[in-house]
Amino acid sequence: MSGAGFQAQSGVDGVFAAVDIGASSGRVILGRVSPAEVSLETVHRFPNGVVEIDGGLRWDFDALFAEVLTGLSVAAKSTEKTGETIASIGIDTWAVDYGLVNKAGELTAQPFSYRDDRSRAAVASVHRKLDPRRLYQTTGLQFLQFNTIYQLATEKNLEGLQALLIPDLIAFLLTGVRRTEATNASTTGFFDAVAGEWATEFFTALGLRKDLFPPLIQPGDTVGTLLPEIAAQVGLPGDTTVVAVGSHDTASAVAAVPAKEDNGEENFAYISSGTWSLVGLELKHPVLTEASREANFTNERGVDGTTRYLRNMGGLWLLSECQRTWATEGFRPDLDALLSAAGALPAGGPQINPDDPYFIAPDNMPERIRGAVRRTGEVLPNDPAAITRCIMDSLAAGYARTIAAAERLADRSVDVVHVVGGGSQNALLCQLTANATGRPVVAGPVEATALGNILVQARAAGPAAGGLPQLREIVAGGTSLRRYEPLISVRQGYVQ
């Protein structure tokens, strides 16, 4: 389904560009779509990560946007060689973070990262003005100290400024049009989960302007066409459009979950596994009960007005941070070998709570994990395989708890668990998840986010048609999936 050096095939009805940026890296991907299949070609990769600027952890957005332009330029040259035309561009990134833009359209500072600790102090002041129960009854949003509502509460002077979430900021700089895509808006704490509109009373309660964010736009709607200077710089036609997709990367990923409704797999849970783990169900309506709030589940908007009922959990950030620390110490193990060694260790070893805020900021992660285990009265050896196994066991157990809780709270049963994203390549994690949940795990596609991004664009333009089941049929038909059956039961408790 993907690969460099892809040659255009007969039967391709449209070519689309996906700008897909995560917390650690970004890509520009070309998708060639026909009514029955989609092929991906990654034309540009670039790193991303937080940097310390002006005493805080921020994103180097200027460098990020320059990489986006480079990627679009490479995409333009690639399609020029094959005689193709890029029909549109879609953008997805992580959630909650934003940039502040003045009336002249200038970014006032590099955007803060959710990994910065600045918003912690604002939580209490926000909750004094807006009771957490009221917040949840309207937004259905999981409490996370870095949610946009708490970040904005730290800002000192917003007069004349507008907040644009990261994918909307990129779209604005490409088109000059300011809009807020709904799936990402739903992560801010200012979005009414039932009405699908801004909860304007929350802006008023916090002393913020009701137009602090631009108007809402839905996946599949056109944002605008490229600015003339942007089109000239990247070598694309001036009428190239930017189309809103599920701009929260998880919304795009869930849209590409290859669930098959003809064999009962509509009752699926999903795990979008990467830096973070997004674990939950797809529902028609939000769950706004007090029990759901107490369980800290979130109701985020999905493509086609669905609800992504999930918890945002710790993810493979834990392992990647360990690898970073080990590399500074001169130890650079092959990842496959490391996972194999971890898989050879016996089940039932020590576990951590991967959701603990203690693990959010970058630091010496192996020692943090060993310290968390010590606080439980157990001992974790200073051995990369043992630490890796602890991470995998902890994530799998966390996934099992979260899925069981989602079933209970939403009154739904789950027949199968779909793992998409980078973690779908991690055979150890997938098998441990099958064991912990007692459900089959279907792994793939790795590029779910890009597929969801491109298929929403393709549906807006015509080559793809139908609702989410039809888009998922395209994914399932063109993806090599791996199925893991539960083999053994492992402990599902966790320690803090």
**End-to-end CA span:** 41 Å
How many domains comprise the coordinates? 2
- How would you sum up the major sheet? 7 strands, mixed
Number of strands: 19
Estimate the helix proportion, in percent. 25-40%
Basic shape: globular
Q: How are the strands ordered across the major sheet? A: 15-16-14-13-17-18-19
Helix/strand-derived category reads alpha/beta
Top-tier CATH class of the largest domain: Alpha Beta
What is the CATH homology-level superfamily of the largest domain? ATPase, nucleotide binding domain
Percent of sequence in beta strands? 15-25%
CATH 2nd-level architecture of the largest domain? 2-Layer Sandwich
* CATH topological fold name of the largest domain: Nucleotidyltransferase, domain 5
Please, what is the average pLDDT?
Answer: 93
- Rg from Cα: 22 Å
Architecture overview:
With 496 residues, the protein is α/β, with parallel strands linked by helices. It folds into 2 domains: 14-243, Nucleotidyltransferase, domain 5 (2-Layer Sandwich), CATH 3.30.420; 250-444 and 481-496, 2-Layer Sandwich (Nucleotidyltransferase, domain 5), CATH 3.30.420.40. 35% of the residues lie in helices and 20% in strands. It is built from 17 helices and 19 strands. A 7-stranded mixed sheet has the order 15-16-14-13-17-18-19, with helices on both faces. It has a 6-stranded mixed sheet with strand order 3-2-1-6-12-11, sandwiched between helices. α9 (249-255) packs across α16 (448-461) and α12 (335-343) packs across α14. Residues 1-10 and 490-496 have low confidence and may be disordered. Residues 17-254 form the Carbohydrate kinase FGGY N-terminal domain. Keywords: ATP-binding, Disulfide bond, Kinase, Nucleotide-binding, Rhamnose metabolism, Transferase. Belongs to the FGGY kinase family.
